[in-house]
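Example 5.3 — L domain-like protein
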Amino acid sequence: MLLLALFFAVLVLADDCQILHNAYPSVFGTTCCGLTKGTNVDGVTYSLVQCDTTNYITRLEMNNQKLQGQTLFNFGSLTRLTYISLFRNGGLIGSLPQSLPSNLVYIGILENVQGSIPALPTKLQTLYVETTNNGLSGYLPQLPTTLTFLQLLGGALSGGLPATLPPKLQKL
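Solution (predicted structure tokens):
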């Protein structure tokens, strides 16, 4: 039984990491949990990929990775993803997936993402969108009641804020 559990744990790891590897083979290998290639503005290295104890990807920071491509990978298929940050990837051009993981609590988008913002997950707590260097357009979707932080910089989105704001929203 233990051997079977280990087999499925390795299979899951390969599945989530394989998605990243297929999309960006120069950045992600077929095993990726704990990958630490990122460097923040203070020069501190941080983990690009964090996984839970069953090796599903839960946190993904693809900041300043010089990612190239016409399509943003479908991170909607990373079912346990709770945090995604897509900041400053000058060569990355694409649309957000129209289906986002239901467990997302943080989405950060800056530069070179196009299209509309899809329906937001009901557990989302933070939405950070800078539209200045993005091609984002359209209306802001319905905001989840769990949202506590909303930052929209730039002016490419049309329409206004919803008439009713989330009750937990602390910072706008």
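Remark. The chain has one domain: 2-153.
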